[in-house]
Amino acid sequence: MYSESFLSKQQLIELYRTSYRRFVVAIESIKEQIGWKSGKQYFSPKQVRIIIEHLGPPLGSNDFN
């Protein structure tokens, strides 16, 4: 399950099938909450859950609680 894994920004972007720019805009309001940093970054399972709760599960994915 994705919400139990550490994921990189790139993995999340690929999971949501979007561009970096659109992903950044979509999570603008939760950047502080998830500890967004410029450059490469991995998100903890808790941060991944917050992102998923904010954006909703990626289309076509059944790997979420």
Q: Can you describe this structure in just a few lines?
A:
Helix content is 45%, strand content 6%. The chain has helices spanning 9-15, 20-26, 31-34, 45-55; strands at residues 7-8, 42-43.
Describe this entry's structure for a reader.
By secondary structure, this protein is mainly alpha-helical. The protein has one domain. It is 45% helix and 6% strand. The chain is globular. The N and C termini lie close together (8 Å). Pfam families: DUF4248.
Question: What characteristics describe this protein?
Answer:
65 residues; mainly alpha; two-stranded antiparallel sheet; 2 strands; DUF4248; DUF4248 domain-containing protein
Q: Secondary structure elements and their pairing?
A:
Blueprint: E1 7-8, H1 9-15, H2 20-26, H3 31-34, E2 42-43, H4 45-55
Antiparallel strand pairs: 1-2
Compute the average pLDDT.
Answer: 89
How much of the polypeptide forms β-strand, as a percent range?
5-15%
Shape: globular
Order of helices and strands: EHHHEH
Strand order of the largest sheet: 1-2
Profile the largest sheet: 2 strands, antiparallel
Head-to-tail CA distance between termini: 8 Å
Protein name: DUF4248 domain-containing protein
InterPro entries: DUF4248
Organism: Rudanella paleaurantiibacter
